[in-house]
Amino acid sequence: MSSSDTIKQATETARSKTSEAMEKTKQLADAAKTQPVEAKNDFLHTPFMRAALPFINGGTAGMVATTVIQPIDMIKVRLQLAGEGARTGPKPTPLSVTKEIIAAGKVMDLYTGLSAGLLRQAVYTTARLGLFDTFMIALTKRAKDKGNKIGFVERAGAGLGAGGLAAMIGNPADLALIRMQSDGLKPAAQRNNYRSVIHALTSIAKTEGVGALWAGAAPTVVRAMALNFGQLAFFSEAKQQLKDTALSQRAQTLSASAIAGFFASFFSLPFDFVKTRLQKQQRRPDGTLPYKGMFDCFRKVAKDEGLLRFYRGFGTYYVRIAPHAMVTLIVADYLGFITK
User: Where is this region: Disordered (predicted)?
Assistant: First the structure.
């Protein structure tokens, strides 16, 4: 064999080896890129994670929204508690309440009860959005098996059921939030000065009994059912109706959440008002309570303060509910998209 043939053969061999090495390197690189994604996808699609994700996404979305909206919620509660038992008198406004809170302390007082608000979202919103998605999946499957499409009635039923069950679970945190936000209205000597949501819960259970943590549970459940009916059912229905329009996906979600926020506010405010009054009340020196229950509170407020009192602060409530609904639903929608 000539030297030129030897060199040619060596060159071909080297080229072949180089090509094999490059191909192997490319395969390893591709594997390195795809394996983490595959591992992630495999983890997200395990039966446990598929069942848990609606709850995780819902709780995360609710906590993000509460952090943004907490100051408005504080003002809403103070508006509902102002002028209790009197039909006439000064009519507070969101601006006057805000000025009063800031003048009495500092700007961060608007975030009083944030720990309770976050705990409530971690429990309540996790449960209500998680249960709603779980119910919707089951209802959609049942409708598909029958050759039908899911309708507004099924969406409304899922929203009502999820809201009621979640409200019962989250009532103690909701009660602690109201107590923390209303504590500043008392004379300094009578304040409980709750340090955190845990301190509030333990103090209430110790002084009033564990059962007191479910004070106002009836209107809380009805409020949650009304709010969920307005928020989740109308959000789901609006998204379905806007699906074939020229609006972008983001615009559809924003529009649907704004519509849901309005209906959620309208249906739930009277029950939210009564819930706040019942959860704020404490026993008088003679051991009696101002209100015996939800219906007694409705009756006394209507008689002593007028029917329109139930919708006092609707603007503030809408500004609190609508953005909260929008942030919650948009974040939950996005988390659902990236984890599907």
Answer: 1-32
